[in-house]
Amino acid sequence: MNGSAGAKERLVADCRSIGEHLPGRDAPWLRALRGAALTRFDEVGFPTPRQEDWKYTSVAPIELA
């Protein structure tokens, strides 16, 4: 597993563990939206410079957190 994949797995695990403590946790629509966003991030991971919208943006600081 490379560093980016490890960072993604840690972030997904952290988000799942704090989900029940976030504001709005009792709103079904918000819980569903957060779940869908987390599932999508788990599928695609961090953006890369090959994606036009992220071409000039480094996500390295996020990956290192």
Q: What do these coordinates show?
A:
There is one protein chain. With 65 residues, the chain is mostly helical. It has 3 helices and no strands. The longest helix has 17 residues. The chain is elongated and about 35 Å long. The two termini are 17 Å apart.
Shape: elongated
Count of DSSP strands: 0
The N- and C-terminal alpha carbons lie at a distance of 17 Å
Q: Please give the largest β-sheet.
A: none
What is the ordering of alpha helices and beta strands?
HHH
Helix content: 55-70%
Strand content: under 5%
Catalogue the unreliable spans: none
Computed CA radius of gyration, to the nearest angstrom = 13 Å
Mean pLDDT, as a whole number? Answer: 85
Question: Helical region count?
Answer: 3
- Class derived from helix and strand content: mainly alpha
Summarize the structure.
The chain is mostly helical and 65 residues long. Helix content is 58%, strand content 0%.
Quick tags:
65 residues, mainly alpha, 58% helix
Topology of this protein?
Elements: H1 3-18, H2 28-44, H3 60-64
